[in-house]
TrEMBL record:
SUPFAM superfamilies: OsmC-like (SSF82784). The lineage of its organism: Bacteria, Pseudomonadati, Pseudomonadota, Alphaproteobacteria, Rhodobacterales. This is Organic hydroperoxide resistance protein. It comes from Rubellimicrobium mesophilum DSM 19309. It comes from the Bacteria.
Amino acid sequence: MDATVDIATGPVGEATVRLLLHVALPGLTAWAAQDLLARAHHACPYTHISHDAVDVVLRAA
């Protein structure tokens, strides 16, 4: 997994935190890997805490 955290500009010019995760999941198809990431993100308790404060981008590598 490769993670990048940066400051992005929101829709009205405000500063927001963006988390970009590139995750390698050997043995899974691209579709299955992206689906797994989406499901894990949805179930993650940290997602529920920070859903409005952090823009999270998940990419299967």
